[in-house]
Amino acid sequence: MCNDYEQHVAWAEYCRMMESLALRIPSHQTELDLHQADDIRINDPAPIMRAAAGSNAIELSSMTFGFPPAGPKGGPVFNFRSEGRQFANSKRCLVPASGFFEFTGAKYPKAKHRFTLNGAPFLAIAGLWREAVGNKPPTFTMLTTDPGPDIAPYHNRQVVVLRPENWEAWIALTRPEAELLRPLPAGSLLVETVRPESG
Question: What is the pTM of this model?
Answer without folding.
Answer: 0.95
